[in-house]
Amino acid sequence: MVQARCLMGRSGCRRREEQEFIVQFETEVQDIIFDLASLGSIMTFPEPGTTVTKVSGDERLTLQGTTVVTGQQFNGPPSDGNGTVRVSKSGPFKTVKFRVRTAADSVSPDDGIHLQIGRPL
Question: Are 50 and 86 in contact (CB under 8 A)?
Fold first, then answer.
């Protein structure tokens, strides 16, 4: 079972402000895969020892260093940034924390991100 929750403040989770999410696994995992669709925001993995690697995706999904994934908002077809990233830590883990904020130059203050989480075979 995977649980994800937004650590909401008074403003809720649908605001331009940065929001923090925690994904919790029942058992330890080594690496996980985030399959992202329509990412028009900036996703940051703040925990020490976390590394993000782009596996595949379009030119609107980019990495900044090893902990920041940026999806460029695109007004019209095709959609915002799409792709797959691998999230790794220095050892097995049961939780992964990430933050999402809409880019300052984005078309819309809200971003509907499609996220599927899996693990490599």
Answer: no
The CA distances from residue 98 to 48, 95, 101, in Å, are 12, 10, 10
pLDDT tens digits in sequence order for the chain, 121 residues long = 444 455 544 445 555 567 888 898 889 999 999 999 888 888 999 999 999 999 999 988 899 999 999 888 766 666 788 899 999 999 999 999 999 887 666 666 566 678 889 887 7
Asked if 44 and 25 count as a contact pair (C-beta separation under 8 A), the reply is no
Q: Which residue has the tokens 């079972």?
A: 1
Q: Under the phi-then-psi rule, with left for phi > 0, alpha for psi from -120 to 50, and beta for the rest, what region is 10?
A: alpha
Q: Which residues pair with 88 in a beta bridge?
A: 31, 51
Q: How far apart are CA 52 and CA 87, in angstroms?
A: 5
Please provide residue 62's backbone torsions phi and psi, each rounded to the nearest 5 degrees: -130, 160
Return the CA Rg of the chain.
14
